[in-house]
Design a protein that fits this description.
With about 325 residues, the chain is of the alpha/beta class. The chain is built from 15 helices and eight strands. One of its GO terms (cellular component) is endoplasmic reticulum membrane.
């Protein structure tokens, strides 16, 4: 009798816990995305959208130096957006006639369909479609990329090497802190869990919040160059826009794609004759020094490299915008 009474009380306790937890969890899962800061709202307002196969893609297109034929296209990293380039944007407009950046599909203000098979190949096709939309498909393009964008640039470079009609004509390529070699790439623990979590991944993406995101991203910045809380909120707002946190696990399949297509993408870098440069934040835990740099120089001996200060890490364009911009200008003005 005592045992039966104890079991009854335990069942009642769990029912009460469930009645409390279920509405709290439901409310948590329906927390609206954060409001855009004035700066991020201004970035969105000054941009435009074009349609790719029924999907809206956000982009920025600024006219800079009058009379210059030079065009630069910026390709952002994971998990952020074209807003990563805002600190060097004005400096680029003083050198280039057109400065163009987009939010890849699944990122920033672009559409984030689900379910969807996100791939580097599709992102490269979106870049090509954007330049056709802008009437620039026949112009020579300078590519400046970071992280995830490095791999998209590699695919664009492969297509350029094949000399197929309708592909970009690439004048130069500058990469930065991207995992272009799968063997030296060290993804974060959260990335591994989301990428290979199976049935657990959709649950993790729904439970992800600003606290988890900020604690996961901050370690890839240098100790003296970490983003402020407001800057982290801007990044998180871009991810939460259009429920982007729910597609992170799908986007992360690019890591597996890098392994599968290593020969294609690393081979493209090694076989073209255009100027190639790499801007490197050496404190990067994702592409660690010296392993990454040694392999890069061995594989691409003709490429030039700029190594920023010792404390600069995975986001060099945000951590050291002047150093990054000076390194890029030095490269662009060298040919």
């Amino acid at each position: 009798m005592v045992r039966r009474d104890r079991l009854r009380r335990m069942r009642e306790w769990w029912v009460q816990v469930g009645l409390l937890v279920v509405p709290l969890l439901a409310a948590y899962l329906h927390i609206p995305p954060p409001q855009l800061s004035p700066a991020l709202h201004s970035w969105k307002s000054s941009g435009k959208f074009f349609t790719y196969k029924g999907l809206r893609i956000f982009y920025q297109d600024s006219v800079g130096v009058v009379g210059s034929p030079e065009i630069v296209v910026l390709l952002h990293g994971f998990p952020t957006s074209s807003y990563d380039w805002y600190k060097i944007w004005e400096g680029l407009t003083l050198r280039f006639h057109r400065v163009i950046a987009l939010d890849f599909l699944g990122f920033g203000f672009s559409d984030k369909p689900r379910p969807h098979h996100y791939s580097i190949f599709e992102q490269a096709s979106i870049v090509e479609a954007l330049l056709r939309h802008l009437g620039l498909q026949s112009r020579r393009i300078n590519l400046l990329s970071h992280d995830y964008g490095d791999t998209v640039a590699q695919e664009l470079l492969y297509r350029f090497k094949q000399n197929r009609s309708g592909r970009l004509t690439i004048k130069s390529l500058c990469l930065s802190n991207g995992g272009i070699f799968p063997e030296t790439h060290r993804p974060l623990l959260l990335q591994k869990l989301l990428k290979d979590g199976g049935m657990l991944s959709p649950i993790l993406t729904r439970l992800m919040n600003f606290f988890v995101f900020s604690r996961g991203l901050t370690p890839v910045f240098g100790p003296y160059t970490r983003p402020s809380e407001s800057e982290l909120w801007d990044m998180w707002a871009g991810i939460r826009n259009n429920d982007g946190n729910l597609v992170i696990d799908s986007l992360l399949q690019y890591i597996n794609q890098r392994k599968k297509f290593r020969r294609r993408w690393v081979g493209a870098l090694a076989s073209v004759s255009i100027p190639i440069h790499f801007i490197y934040g050496p404190l990067d835990p994702v592409n660690p020094y010296p392993e990454f740099l040694e392999l890069y120089r061995k594989t691409l001996p003709r490429s030039t490299v700029s190594i920023l200060d010792d404390h600069i890490s995975h986001y060099p364009q945000l951590e050291d915008p002047m150093g990054f911009l000076n390194a890029y200008m030095g490269f662009i003005n060298s040919f």
